[in-house]
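S1.2 Input.
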Amino acid sequence: SIGSYIGSMNGKESEITIHEFDSKSQQNQNPVKIYICRHGETFWNSEGRIQGQTDTALNPNGEKQARLLGEALFELPCKYIISSDLKRAEDTAEILRNVWISKGRKDTPKLSIDPRLREVHAGELQGKYGDDPRVNSLRREVFIKWKNNDSNAKYPGGESKADVVQRARAAVIDAAQQAADKGGGNVLMVAHGGFIKFLAADILEREKRKMGMPKAVNCCVSTFSYNPKTRCLQIVKMFERVINDSYLEAKDDTG
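S1.3 Output.
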């Protein structure tokens, strides 16, 4: 049976479908591909400011990146599009959809919103400049704790790695399972760099392996595969650049 869950973060709500899993129905289900795009460049990206869950807007270059992303992914097999509720991600998704519609793609999916796809909350660091020595010192301190498996470490007033991983896995698996239950079809998501990195790090930890990570530029695409039979997520490709490098000027790791 299918239930309904209302996800709410900072007063924003969206209806999210969740499932009670039926092992018999899963036996004939094929793997689902999940393509997770980082949003286009924002004014804060270009300034090197840490965004976290601050609701910043795309700048003109970010809007151009989103259009190019739509063109690059025009023929991508995809039945569902889901975005974070933060404006920079939602606008990227809408621009991509508008490109598909304008180019005549008749099966362009409607956009769904899931607040669980939000960026990592960076607490007191939100709005700060990433090259500030004091900010860098605190970031390194927290990164080291995360690297040493302290998943409860967080920035002052922010989210822990454990919190982000929990909502990230739930959001991605819910979407992929819903696609599988409806007969298959791939999922395209628009989210954030930190969100994608934490999801990938968790998968690698579960698999007890390491993997080099390219730079998470704006509008890069990471591909994952979900097996409904085992309910396992796997990494296929990380942070693939699909648009012209001349439009990729934003600093990495600023949300």
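S1.4 Remarks. The two ends are 37 Å apart (CA to CA).
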